[in-house]
Amino acid sequence: MATPAGVDEQELLQPRSSSSSEEEEVMEQQRGNIKEPILEHSTIDLRRHAANTTSQVASVGSNLCPIESLDYEHWTAFWVFAGSNLALLTFATAITAFVSTAAGGSGIPEVKAYLNGVDAPDIFSLRTLVVKADPMVHTGACIGAMVGQGGSRKYRMTCRWLRYFKNDRDRRDLVTCGAAAGVAAALRAPVGGVLFALESLSSCALIWRAFFTTAVVAVTLRALTDICGRGNCGLYGKGGLITYDVTADTVAYRLADLPPVILLGVIGGVLGSLYNVLMVKVLHVCSLVNERGRAHRLLLAAAVSICISCCLFGLPWLAPCRPCSNKDCSTIDHPGGFENFQCPPEHYNDLASLFFNTNDDTIRKLYGRGTNDDFQTSSIMVAFGASYVLGILSYGVVAAPFGLFVPIMLTGASYGRLVGMAMGSDANLDHGLFAVLGSASFLGGTMRMTVSVCVIMLELTNDLLLLPLVMLVLLISKTVADAFNPNIYDLILRLKGLPYIEDHAEPYMRQLTVSDVVAGPLRTFNGVEKVGNVVHILKTTGHHAFPVIDEPPFSSPPVLYGLVLRAHLLSLLKKKRFLLTRSVAGSDAAGQFGADELGKRGSGKHDRVEDVEVSAEEMEMFVDLHPFTNSSPYTVVETMSLAKALILFREMGLRHLLIVPKSSSVSASSRTRFSSPFS
Known about the structure:
Family: Belongs to the chloride channel (TC 2.A.49) family.
Radius of gyration: 34 Å
Membrane topology: Multi-pass membrane protein
CATH architecture of the largest domain: Orthogonal Bundle
Strand order of the largest sheet: 5-7-8
Transmembrane segments: 78-99, 174-198, 261-286, 298-318, 388-412, 433-458, 464-484
Largest sheet: 3 strands, mixed
Subcellular location: Membrane
Distance between the termini: 82 Å
Protein name: CBS domain-containing protein
């Protein structure tokens, strides 16, 4: 039978003594304590980890030392927790390593590179889509790409009407729409998804400049509204940020609250840039391990899983139990609620409540209004450090489908709430509001997105009154972080070796012309070309398109006819529609090819000239390239500024740009230049 707290077992066994009235009063008081509920006794220390300050020898008439036997249930819970994490992470790493390595990471750098003109192998394949499942940006882009390539013929998932989208331009647009749809589905932010695709994937500098202007206007307007709201502006002080305000809930903040918000933006910029540096270093080191084979990838994932499990399970033991007198205890140990984690009844562990919930539920707790007393400063500090370090470790080390957006939101919410706690009574803002601003500032410091993050945060919180503060922290955090390094996606692009053209020209480019940077030797085809020459050029070059020049007898002076793609040349060689003499083919030559034969192949899938069999007799024949040549390619004169040519190339989404001589008296065949940076 258990002995009630506060009553010594040895004292209960001893006979009652009548030596003095004081002793009898003490005994009566002890008996009265037995009837009292334990949780209402104010002197009882319910913490399991109370320090042992007495001797471990139990003597008659003395208090027992607070020792206890080992609790094997705790170890069972840990092994179940660690084993589940290990199994899930190992499975995710295994299917990524053995099925589709392109599914590793968030996929946003690969999507960004594709929209910039780089088609990496298998980034939008059906296998990648199945393995990916999440994050939704890459998943949506995969779906859009599959629609753009007409489905998958390999797995017999095709549709005839989709063949009209089998071209680079429509496919790029569908990938952009798919990425936007992924953001809308994951974050329930449709407008934010559109802006995310435009800002993060298209990198339009004008969006950032417009955001800077509107942010200044919003903050200034809010300051003037606060001043005029006191009746100092007469009739001009009416109204506020919401012209037709029909909501009852308002966010109370004033001009005096801007300094803490500015500080939050500065901290977000510094922490975000440091996050990017550490992430790239971890990715670089661990890529050396991953390159050694699939077994090393699995071992590395297992080691990281065990390390993370130990941290998440061990750190909550440092947090004391808190009574839930001010909240409904019925949510304890329920999904999304607070966690008891070895605490007495009617108590909860605030740090365990942050660790043993989904990211969405944890962020919801940190964003909650009127929850200033739910968390201790030490618990929020530990949660921030753990999410910061473990976020870098998990994404940088493990080659599995992981996203960055939600983990960064969680880390930002932690330190945002921590800043709110540090401000104490000096700030009028709620700790939940500080958490929202912290997420915005950390997203701005790492990803450097402003417009899309601002709209996403407003759609997530459903509070338009946060607009000035969110814009302010985003503006400051991005500006501070840009002084140290680029955004995280650009850094990952460089680490993976994917080429990327920025949307702005460097100052030195204004002093150069396009003729200063072209490189040779130039490879061209005649309008009617010998089959042997076509095969030789395809084997000795890696270009994906070639200029077509008409020369006598088809044109008296040499004339640039257009541009022919490598894929179309390979289709011609496979079809073997050759001519015995150097003559023009009939007008129906292109009609002999189906849409699938000349259409855009799937992502990363390209025909090889080595797979085409051409006999020695066929090498001496001819092929008419006119019906398969783009007769209206983008061209610029050789004296055009390099900066202007780069902007044209980038803004129009070109892959090939032809440079022609300024003087018509110079032979076009000797002066035509060809630019194909991604071929």
